[in-house]
Amino acid sequence: MSETIQQKVGKRIVEIRTQKNISQQELASKCNFEKSNMSRLEKGNANATLSTLEKVCDALQIEYIELFKF
Asked: How far, in Å, CA of 52 to CA of 13, rounded?
């Protein structure tokens, strides 16, 4: 079964967060999310809204397009 777009975006968030040496908890705090919600987002178990992705991009200091480079 192929990956969903949620899973692909979640993996990209993990990749970028890891490259920037930011913990999942730290990213969740920067976004004002619970750590459990960030975990679900990264695993692709949450269908993120555009405003959620905007918060993640702002916290990671990246352009939105970076999340979709898979």
From this structure: 12
